[in-house]
Amino acid sequence: MPLFAVHYTYSEATVPARDTHRPHHRTWLADRLAEGELLSSGPYPDGSGALLLFRATDAAALDELLAQDPFAQEKLIDDVRAVEWQPVLGAFAD
Predict the structure, then answer these.
(1) Rounded to an integer, what distance in angstroms lies between the CA atom of residue 17 and that of residue 35?
(2) How far apart are alpha carbons 70 and 26 in whole angstroms?
(3) Strands 3-9 and 79-85
(4) Which pLDDT belongs to residue 22?
(5) Distance between CA atoms of residues 90 and 3, nearest Å
(6) Reported pTM
(7) Can you give the pLDDT at residue 94?
(8) Measured between alpha carbons, how far is 10 from 42 in angstroms, rounded to an integer?
(9) Alpha-carbon torsion 66, 17, 52, 32, what sign?
(10) What is the mean pLDDT of each run of 10 residues along the chain (94 residues)?
(11) Rounded to whole angstroms, what are the CA distances from 50 to 9, 10, 17, 62, 94?
């Protein structure tokens, strides 16, 4: 199943709401991890966004999944860039 690198971009304006909704967002992520859809995720240290690694059958399925993220539902993500990724070495390589 394809892997996707998903980059979320955040703005300073959404900090208070992200702080409020972060527990729900992380619960959603933990559920995706338990289901095997999420491989890893975490914010960038400068607060500008986050990187999430997902497995999905295709880009459309990934888009449907990402729409369920509480941060997306609360409109706290300024931009999403998702690209299919093919690791050849390391922990995520086949």
Answers:
(1) 27
(2) 9
(3) antiparallel
(4) 98
(5) 14
(6) 0.94
(7) 78
(8) 13
(9) negative
(10) 97 97 98 98 97 98 98 98 96 88
(11) 7, 8, 16, 16, 24
Rounded-to-integer distance, Cα 39 and Cα 37, Å: 7
Long-range contacts of 70-76, Cβ-Cβ distance < 8 Å, separation of 24 or more: 70/21, 70/24, 70/25, 70/28, 71/8, 71/18, 71/21, 71/25, 74/17, 74/21, 76/10, 76/14, 76/17, 76/18, 76/21
Give DSSP secondary structure letters for the chain: --EEEEEEE--GGGHHHHHHHHHHHHHHHHHHHHHTSEEEEEE-TTSSEEEEEEE-SSHHHHHHHHTTSHHHHTT--SEEEEEEE---SSTT--
Residues in the chain: 94
d(CA 13, CA 30): 26
